[in-house]
Fold this sequence. Notes:
With about 800 residues, the chain is α/β, with parallel strands linked by helices.
Amino acid sequence: MKIKQVHISGFGRWSQVAFDFDTQFQIIVGQNESGKSTLRAFIVGILFGFPSKKQSNNIYDPRDGSRYGGDLVVETADGDFCIARFGRTQSTLTITRLADQHELANPEEWLSNNLSPLTRQSFDEIFNFSEQDLAQIKQISAFDLQKLLLNLGAVGSTKWLEAAINFDKQADNLFAQRSSGKRPLNQAVRAYELSESKLSTQSEALQIFLDDQQTVSELTKSVATLEEKIDKSQEAINHLTQLQRQYQLFTEAQQIDKKHVRSVSEVDLQHAEQLQVEIDLLVGNIRRQEQEMDHLKLQPEFVIEIEDSNKRLMILKMMVSQLVSDQQQRDELLTQQKATQAQFASNQVPELLSINDDHHLSNYKMRLIGLISAALLLVVITYTIVTPIWLWLLFLVAIVIFIFRFAAHANHVTNEIKKQYYPLNETQIRAVQPSIEQYLKRDQSLKAINQKIELQMNHVNKAIQSLARDLNVEIVLQSVQESVDQLSQITQNRDLLENNKKALWQQQQSQLSNMIDASSISLKQKMFDLQRIFKKYEVEKLTDLQNLAVAYHEQMANNQRYQAIVQQISAYDQEQLLTFKNEQALSNTLQIEQSNLTHLKQRFAEEQAKLARIQAKQMQRVSDDQFMIMQQTVADQKTELIDQFSDYLAQKLANRWIYSALHAASQNRFPKMIEFATDYFNQLTIGRYRHISFEKDEIIITTENNESFNIISLSTGTQEQLYVAMRLALAHVVADVINFPMLIDDGFVNFDPQRRAVVLDILARVSDKQQIIYWTTRVETDDFQSVIELK
Length: 791
């Protein structure tokens, strides 16, 4: 039979379309969702009937409401015929001979005769397969292949096969070589062997009893030794398990212990900060004094007395100016912090996102979609493999539960993150991370500047009180600026009294010079003291010293964590943990010890079982007066055993005679099928595999180097190549019984380009005698005459 034309009225995505199959090797190209599988299902449905809801999840109802069904134009030995089938639930079949447009009166009988001896199952097993079917090579047995060939090649073989199977079942009900059940012949054999064994060993019972007593003593000692070893091994495993739980804490403690930050004295830090303030003030004061000295030299008539109070007042003003500047800087930082806090509903700035939270916030939807897609694919694949529908439904329910639990967990984590950052959305949460990080840095800066302001405030208050005492005035400390203004006014008033004392100009100049010298000496001393502190801590500037102090405080906190961890792990456990290079080495040691324990338990069980068996045998020794009774029992059992074996052999031989006769009637197709399959497989593997054989219902493959493998050891691609070779060989050996088009739906997607070229070349040669219809997503060459492209 050859399919020449396909007309679809309505079937799935296809509606009112027609396809002409002009050549023996017809290629149909289309991307996913282009309707390739739907077209193949339509051809099968026309020939064997459309699927029902009980048979398939996809019943291919027309999407646009067109009439369900269509027709095929086929070429047979009696001419061309049109096979039309319409309606899904109550389909009507009509067959028309195209030569004279005669509609056959009994279309079902004609179709059955032309498809005979094919059934829907045998058609799918030989002529119809897709990429999903290739995985079934692992389930093929020699018996299933021979049965299929006998059904197709020997007329009337079905009843004879049923009779042969019935004979075989009856024989198996009597006896099974590997059975330990309650089959009569197996029971009789065991009873006979037991009786004969008791009879043959009775004469040696005494010596065996004495030998077994020695064995019992040795086994008892061995069992005790093994039990002691098991206890020690279990203790080692428990200790290693405890070490494994402590390893992460121990690693954290080691990392803390490796970090050493030099301690910074608070006195040195405060002294350095005070020296820096005084140095800054002295530098400014010297510069001002030098300017005043230059002014006095240029205009001696305007020189006035500069008292010590003026110098101290100037220093005080500079200190106040620096204090005001730092307070302004602090206010700016506080304003920035409040602006960052205002972005969140609770006015509390949350912690920075961890790497896991950021990854979860960004990708959990994509992972959920990927998981659902993978689950759907797995469900579809499972459905094609798993036969019981209840098992598939159970698997589907498990997949759905898993997806819902994953989605609920992911949604819970996302909501927790959003709750901390409310009212920000996901994009705003990631965008605000730099602001949070800057907030944390400003918080550190605020702590440092608050300490500095507090220190400066103390210095200013002391300077104000000291200057007020020297000026012999009472100052009520209000605001710093008001106090400075009051002192400034008092100083100015006193300076005015001395303004006209020109005679004191030289004295003032001398005093100013002395003050500059004194300030310079004081400056050098303070700079020397400051550098001495810097040298002590190996830093170059005050900010480095302050950063070192912050790092030291962090180290102190880590040291507390280190002590807490060390207290949780004993000294012995710490020494043991140091012997392992890494956590994997510890895990490997634990696995080795667990394996050793398993081995010891196995030996213990074996020795204990052996001891129990010998002890039981010692209890079952029989006395001499039973010997004659045992001899008669053995003779009776032997006679009965011979009679039952005769029935068993008769039924087994009947089964073999029937199969031998059917093999002869089917022209011994099975060896021919193996021969052709071997040839095709050799071509598809580029000569790597040279022979295919069946051994105890297993398919064995032999390489060119005479190495043999079970198909489970082969790669997925090689298994699929073997399946294709078997399919082509099956179709070849039954060609004298039925020649039918082979339907292949994307069956070579896992083949590499070289093997795809080989299999297409084989199909092209096979198509000389048999029509091949091949659906695929791509064709690498333009060597084929007829290619239909689906849009």
